[in-house]
Design brief:
The complex is a heterodimer of chains A (762) and B (482).
Chain A lengths: L9 H12 L1 H4 L15 H4 L18 H7 L18 H12 L30 H12 L10 H13 L5 H9 L5 H11 L1 H14 L17 H12 L4 H10 L8 H6 L16 H21 L18 H11 L13 E3 L3 H23 L2 H19 L5 E3 L13 E3 L7 E4 L19 H8 L7 H14 L20 H13 L4 H9 L2 H4 L6 H6 L16 H11 L55 H5 L18 H9 L1 H15 L6 H13 L5 H20 L1 H9 L11 H14 L3 H4 L3
Antiparallel strand pairs in A: 1-2, 3-4
Chain B lengths: L2 H16 L3 H12 L26 E7 L13 H5 L31 E4 L4 E4 L3 H5 L4 E8 L5 H10 L9 H9 L9 E6 L23 E3 L17 H22 L2 H24 L6 H7 L8 H13 L4 E6 L15 H23 L6 E6 L3 E6 L11 E4 L3 E7 L6 E3 L1 E2 L6 E3 L2 E2 H11 L8 E4 L2 E4 L14
Parallel strand pairs in B: 1-7, 1-8, 4-12, 4-15, 5-6, 5-7
Antiparallel strand pairs in B: 2-3, 4-11, 8-11, 9-10, 13-14, 16-17
Helix pairs in contact in B: 1-2, 2-8, 7-8, 10-11
Classes of the chains: A mainly alpha (762), B alpha/beta (482).
Chain lengths: 762, 482
């Protein structure tokens, strides 16, 4: 690289080098700081210290840093050998160029408020369909790449249905879209998908990873916890297209809103998804503190894309958060009533309207009787007292499910928050008051220092992070990888955005659109970028293996829930029942108990509850549903911003052999065989369409027939095998069915449900 | 089908049958199917075997966790002075400012009811509760000076296995497979076996992958039903039929691969072939009835029983087949004295009988097969137990001890360790470490060292930080290295 290149960019080129190699000893953490030198603050880095300057802007020979990073003496060279860190030649060259250019610093990009940039200029103005495409195409043109052609309609239909609703399209839906030749056909399709209730279930599922939602309390005993009303709140919020700012305030501080509704109270269960430790001999106060720490860390990850956990024990080494600031932020969450007790107090009881009416009536009766009792003569006293006891018992007998909630302590019971040294709740420092870290935007002036103010601060228009973090997370779900790949970390240790202007444009747009999340989804999936074919050549793969430049459409593996939901849907088993207590689909028996807890095995739910969408499956933290774990579902013990996406033989065993998937293959076989008089080849075509939405090629039909025919022949000779293959576990076949045929179609169905294409969003 | 395509497919099929490594198979397939194209970048399986950066002494690990924590003072750490002062009030200096799980006030000192003697060339102290281990004394490396920070089960177990008392970090076995991959891809690289009816205290976190990719988590094998979940074909489908379905699946996926050109498709094809091989290799290795009678007898194993003895024998079969990390959990070692089976007298003797014999047999068996030199065996709990009687059961006829984090004993054997050796010492009453303290982070650092890693350099970046098993501590215990 010649010297005439563009000037060095501090955020993009220098900060990562300094952050990774130098800040541990020459950064924010006072305790670890060496030689009293900071390289993260320009005034200190360039200061004259007894005639020596670490960095002398523009003067290489006067810069001690240059001498030390290039020194041939191992004892002098930086970074020191024992750190295991090592600057590459090009890193040294970049640092030298930067100092020569005057060593300009600039604040970390993510802490500057995004300003909506003008649309990027492109050479081919015919390609972009919306503003996203300008930014993507401009970059592709700079890299000398061309976008891919648009995916065909069936492929696109499958991709967008899975991305918007988590479910593939039915044959009828594909036909409707393919036949719609109007110019708005695609937009109308998106509107139809966004209006489905499956949309809310799908995006709620994604949110529940962040909310660490589970149906058990965690830790050793991991007993069941009743908190599903929160899951239903999230689904309803997405389906109602609740703006994200309202969604935020309700979950962080719904209990503090004036005239708060029942729904807003249920929303506060967001932070009651922390674990509760019931192990005998544990200190409740210790684990209450752990829960508050989790609330701090989760809030920071979800809304600020900031990793706060390190500052619990010491000043953050990389990002501008001190330990004191950590506990000042902690103080906002340290005033709620809940205290790691097994009954989950405080909880809200979910009475139905009828129950509420009954309760009001009985409460009135009780009150009236109590009043009477104080005034009545002695002789009638006993009878009335007995009646009162009865009435109270009847009042208490009105039972309903509950949900844990946040409730602020009364003024006389407020806790004093202190710094906790090394993160130990017993090792306490000086008391601190509520505040947000100084590096972030300030709290609104004169607002009370409570959670409600904090919630408003999170979605404040001056917050430089929240809109970027949210749009990036949506981008990640739709395109498979975020514009910032480390979607959980926008700090200095996180990755820089691949398309910074696009990120800022989207951030500005979502705020201007009043946090309309359905609009955001529509914006992403109607872009030309999204609609590209995902076909690839080895050359294109080599050029951009992770598809960061987006010269092709997204193609990545479905999430665990979608893998199962899809198999149930195409086989016709899926129940569309929504909401309510979690369900227990078939799972293998382990014959084990949780430590000090109940059995891990469960009684399979009856009827359609076996076939509900994955979001309704009971989520036990110490033993999450095994087949979903195989497909990278997390345990939900802590906030998960991003799931990994592996490809393993254990996954193959799940979809090949798990009774859930065998049952789906059997149901699929009955759908296929149910086509009556059709020729076998046509039945194969039907099966492929049910599963993939598209038409099978002639080669594919031939290949599947070459499986079906010999399988049928074998099962004809082995009726007992045929019976098992076709009916265990689904149950007796339809009247008059040919078992050998059903068994052979089950085998074909088993193959269809395991096609690579089935696991991909195409 | 064109002759050339047919030829190509037969080539790839033969290729698969030859290849055991997913990575190489995938790469070769890509080139075969895209003959005119440039070679694809290698897609290496995350479980492909990797050479550790330092010279490794141990290639494999068998870790036998005694869930609940056995009483060190009744098995290995002999304290005659505690016996002399049995029943006296516990001195105040040991209690001041301390928290215990189930004890408050002033408890009574508790000397062991067991008889101790010295065994092996170096004279390692052992009690009458572990008669078989005495005979293996010359192979053991007993560490008396273990210490931890946690005195409740779940946090202590998590600290031991993940380096942090809270859920969410990768476990020891996950770190090992992340660093080393596995030697036999037809079996999971990290296998977990659980006996005596309960999960470990940390739940799946004690063998989870935390923020590492889930491919590194421990695969829990069951003693009843499929040993690995879903490894058996469904009812009505035999192996031949399974082969026919996989042939069809592969052909269809190859069409897809040519159409879309995604390397992930080849990886998936390879994973299905691997699953097919696992369907044979897993039940085979898990079937202890294939062992000769004298081996079954030596371990005290009985086919079909699901006991700790069975699992210890299975562990040997697994490491023999190249499984990298075998983690056992056995429930029922929490000797509070709340019932006869949790008493440190007969209760302990009975419980030890289920562990003592198979562990001794394992050490001898590994040695006889020449595997002990490259296999690390670890036996122990998550913390120690108090030198005084537990508060709740102080008046009972059954003796029990409370949780105690300050000192406890672990037993190690095998690769790279001194043999017939005792390390570290506690004070005369067993309240504190007198010499050569070994924190759980030090144990972790030492295990990684034996596997060929500098524990400070085996890291994974997550949420902006380079995490490691030993958190921010840990020193290799050089004193126990051979």
């Amino acid at each position: 690289m010649g010297w005439a290149a563009e000037p060095v960019d501090f955020n993009r080129q220098i900060r990562p080098i300094l952050s990774h190699n130098c800040f541990t000893c020459h950064g924010r953490d006072e305790k670890k700081r060496q030689a009293n030198l900071r390289l993260d603050v320009r005034e200190i880095a360039t200061a004259d210290r007894d005639g020596i300057r670490a960095i002398a802007p523009g003067h290489l020979e006067a810069s001690e840093l240059v001498r030390r990073i290039t020194s041939g003496d191992a004892g002098e060279r930086m970074p020191p050998v024992e750190t295991g860190k090592n600057l590459s030649l090009s890193e040294i060259e970049t640092l030298i160029r930067w100092i020569k250019e005057g060593a300009p610093y600039s604040p970390h990009w993510a802490y500057r408020k995004p300003v909506r940039p003008p649309l990027a200029r492109v050479a081919d103005p015919s390609w972009p369909k919306n503003p996203i495409d300008h930014f993507i195409l401009a970059r592709l043109e700079r890299e000398g790449l061309k976008p891919s052609p648009e995916a065909d309609r069936t492929a696109l239909m499958r991709r967008v249905s899975l991305d918007v609703t988590g479910l593939p399209p039915t044959i009828a839906e594909v036909d409707q879209f393919v036949a719609d030749r109007s110019p708005d056909a695609y937009e109308n399709l998106i509107d139809r998908l966004l209006a489905k209730e499956a949309y809310g279930e799908h995006w709620a599922r994604i949110w529940l990873d962040l909310a660490r939602y589970a149906d058990s309390a965690g830790y050793v005993a991991d007993r069941p916890r009743e908190i599903w009303a929160y899951r239903d709140y999230v689904i309803r919020s997405f389906n109602a297209n609740k703006p994200f700012d309202r969604f935020t305030i309700e979950q962080i501080a719904g209990d503090l809103l004036p005239n708060r509704t029942e729904e807003q109270l249920i929303a506060t269960a967001f932070h009651r998804n922390t674990q509760t430790n019931d192990e005998g001999g544990t200190d409740d106060e210790e684990f209450r503190n752990v829960a508050v720490v989790d609330r701090v860390n989760t809030t920071m990850t979800v809304w600020m894309g900031t990793t706060m956990a390190c500052a619990q024990c010491h000043d953050h080494k990389y990002d501008p958060i001190s330990q004191k600031e950590y506990f000042r932020f902690f103080a906002f969450f340290n005033q709620t009533e809940d205290a790691d007790v097994p009954d989950e107090r405080p909880v809200h009881t979910l009475f139905t309207e009828e129950q509420k009416r009954q309760r009001a009536q009985r409460e009135a009766e009780v009150a009236e009787l109590e009043k009477k009792l104080t005034m009545s003569p002695k002789e009638t006293h006993a009878a009335q007292a007995k009646r009162l006891t009865e009435l109270k018992a009847r009042l208490a007998a009105i039972n309903a499910p509950t949900v844990p909630i946040l409730r602020e302590l009364p003024p006389d019971r407020r806790r004093t928050t202190t710094i906790q040294y090394r993160g130990n709740f017993l090792d306490r420092g000086p008391p601190v008051s509520e505040a947000v870290p100084a590096a972030f935007h300030p709290l609104p002036k004169d607002a009370p220092l409570n959670r409600l103010t904090l919630a408003r601060w999170l979605i404040d228009e001056n917050n430089p992070l929240v809109a970027r973090v949210v749009v990036n997370r949506y981008w990640e779900k739709v395109f498979g990888i975020g514009l910032v790949a480390t979607s959980e970390d926008f700090g200095t240790q996180g990755e820089l955005p691949s398309h910074p202007e696009l990120l800022d444009w989207l951030a500005a747009e979502i705020v201007a659109r009043h946090w309309d999340l359905k609009y955001l989804v529509k914006l992403l999936v109607t872009s030309a970028t999204y609609r590209q074919s995902s076909r690839m050549t080895p050359q294109r793969f080599e050029r951009d293996p992770d598809n960061r430049l987006l010269a092709r459409g997204p193609r990545f593996r479905l999430d665990a829930e979608a893998v199962r939901d899809q198999a149930l849907l195409v086989s016709g088993l899926l129940s569309r029942k929504m909401y309510g207590p979690p369900v227990r689909p078939m799972q293998p028996s382990f014959g084990l108990s949780a430590a000090f807890g109940g059995a891990m095995d469960w009684q399979t739910s009856e009827g359609e509850d076996r076939y509900r969408r994955g979001i309704y499956t009971t989520w036990r933290r110490t033993n999450p549903y095994p087949s979903m774990v195989a497909f990278d579902a997390p345990s939900r013990e802590v906030c998960t911003a991003r799931r990994s996406r592996t490809n393993t033989p254990l996954q193959a065993l799940v979809t090949l052999n798990d009774p859930v998937y065998i049952e789906a293959a059997q149901a699929l076989a009955r759908r296929i065989a149910g086509q009556g008089a059709l020729a076998a080849a046509d039945k194969v075509r039907y099966g492929v369409r049910l599963c993939l939405g598209r038409h099978a090629s002639a080669t594919e039909v031939t290949r599947l027939l070459a499986l079906y025919e010999p399988a049928r022949a074998r099962f004809s000779n082995e009726p007992e095998q045929a019976r098992k293959m076709a009916t265990i576990p689904l149950g007796p076949p339809p009247h008059g069915a040919n078992l050998a045929e059903l068994a052979a179609w089950t085998v074909v169905g088993n193959v269809l449900l395991n096609l690579d294409e089935m696991f991909m969003s195409l | 089908m064109s002759p050339s395509l047919e030829h190509l497919q037969s080539v790839t099929r033969r290729h698969f049958l030859r290849q055991s490594s997913v990575g190489i198979g995938t790469l070769a397939l890509w080139s075969l199917l895209n003959r005119d194209a440039e070679p694809a970048p290698p897609i290496v399986s995350p479980l492909a075997p990797k050479k550790p950066p330092l010279a490794a002494k141990a290639k494999r690990v068998i870790y036998i966790h005694l869930t609940g924590s056995p009483p060190n003072l009744d098995l290995f750490d002999y304290k005659p002075e505690l016996v002399n002062r049995n029943g006296q009030p516990c001195p105040d200096r040991f209690l001041k400012g301390r928290r215990f799980a189930f004890t408050s006030g002033t408890p009574k000192l508790l000397g062991t009811p067991h008889t101790f003697a010295r065994y092996g060339r170096e004279g390692i102290w052992m009690s009458d509760a572990i008669p078989n281990l005495r005979e293996a004394a010359d192979q053991l490396c007993v560490v008396h000076s273990m210490t931890t920070d946690q005195f409740n089960h779940a946090p202590a177990e998590l600290l031991l296995y993940t380096g942090s008392p809270r859920p969410g970090r990768p476990s020891l076995g996950a770190w090992a497979t992340y660093g080393l991959g596995t030697e036999n891809e037809n079996l999971p690289g990290f296998i977990v076996l659980i006996s005596s009816g309960s999960q470990p205290n940390g739940g799946k976190n004690s063998f989870g992958s935390g923020f590492l990719p889930t491919v590194f988590q421990g695969v829990q094998c069951r003693s009843k039903g499929d040993p690995v979940l879903y490894v058996s074909n469904p009812e009505g489908m035999d192996r031949q039929m399974r082969r026919l379905t996989l042939d069809a699946l592969r052909d269809l996926d190859e069409i897809q691969a040519r159409e879309f050109g995604h390397p992930e498709t080849f990886t998936r094809i390879a994973q299905y072939e691997l699953a097919f091989r696992m369907q044979v290799s897993v039940p085979e290795v898990m079937d202890i009835s294939r062992e000769p009678k004298q081996i079954l007898d030596a371990y005290g194993a009985q086919p079909g029983a699901g006991s700790l003895a069975n699992n210890i024998l299975l562990a040997r079969r697994l490491v023999e087949q190249g499984v990298r990390f075998v983690q056992l959990f056995d429930w029922g070692w929490d000797f509070h004295g709340t019932n006869p089976s949790e008493g440190i007298g007969d209760g302990l003797t009975k419980k030890c009988a289920t562990m003592d014999k198979p562990v001794a047999a394992l050490v001898k068996d590994l040695k006889r097969r020449g595997l002990l030199d490259e296999t690390l065996v670890i036996v122990g709990g998550e913390f120690g137990r108090t030198p005084f009687r537990e508060g709740r059961t102080a008046a009972s006829s059954i003796l029990g001890r409370d949780h105690y984090p300050d000192c406890y004993t672990m037993v190690l054997a095998g690769a790279g360790l001194k043999q017939g050796f005792a390390y570290g010492e506690t004070d005369e009453l067993g309240f504190s470490i007198a010499r050569d303290k070994v924190h759980v982070h030090d144990l972790q650092a030492t295990i990684l060292h034996l596997l060929g890693f500098d524990h400070e350099k085996l890291t994974y970046r997550f949420q902006g930080r380079d995490f490691r098993l030993t958190d921010v501590q840990g020193q290799v215990v050089k004193g126990i290295l051979a």
